[in-house]
C-alpha cells in the first residue's frame, strides 16, 4: 500500500478516535455522572452553581457546617481568620454518601480571606475524589480568587483539574449581597457558556 495512503488512513482513524473520545467525555457530564458542590453565603455562588446545572445537568449540593457561621459580617471575618491561621477544618453537616458514582465534580466557593473557605477545605479533605475530573468555580468581591484554585490543586493532587471559572459577585463589606441577578445574571450565564465550551463540556 502506498505510504502516503497509509499516513492519510492513520490520520483519519486517529481523528475518528479523538472525536469518539470527546463525545464520551461530554456524555459523562450529565445528571447521573455529575455533582455540583458549592458553598454560598450571599447566594452569588449558588446562582452560578444553578446556571451550571441548567447547562450540563448534575446533582446540586450546598455545603452546610454543623455549626453555622454568625450572621454578622465582621464576626464571620474574625472567625474565618482564626480558622485559617490555625488550619482548623470545621465539621460539616453535609454528607454525600454516593460520592463514588460521580465522575465529574464541580467545586464552587466564594473567596474568603483571599483563600478557599474553611468548609470547602473540610469537604475536600474528608472525601476521596482522586481520579475524578474536578472543575472549580468561584465568586469574589472584585479581588479575584486569591489562593483558592491553588489550594484546590494541593488538596486534590490525584484528580484531573480543569480550568476554573471566576466572576465578581457581591461585596458584603459594603452591603452589596446578591449581585448576580437580572441582567447581571444573564451576563454571567453567557460567561459560563463560554467557559464550558472552552473546557469542552458544552
UniProtKB/TrEMBL annotation:
Coiled coil ranges:
none
Check the UniProt entry and state the signal peptide residues, or none. none
What Gene3D superfamilies would the database entry show? 3.40.50.360
Pfam families in alphabetical order: Flavodoxin_4 (PF12682)
Q: Cite a single GO MF annotation.
A: FMN binding
Q: Which residues form the Flavodoxin-like domain?
A: 34-200
Say which domain of life the source belongs to: Bacteria
Q: Which PANTHER family match?
A: EXPORTED PROTEIN-RELATED, FLAVODOXIN-LIKE DOMAIN-CONTAINING PROTEIN
What is this protein identified as?
Answer: Flavodoxin
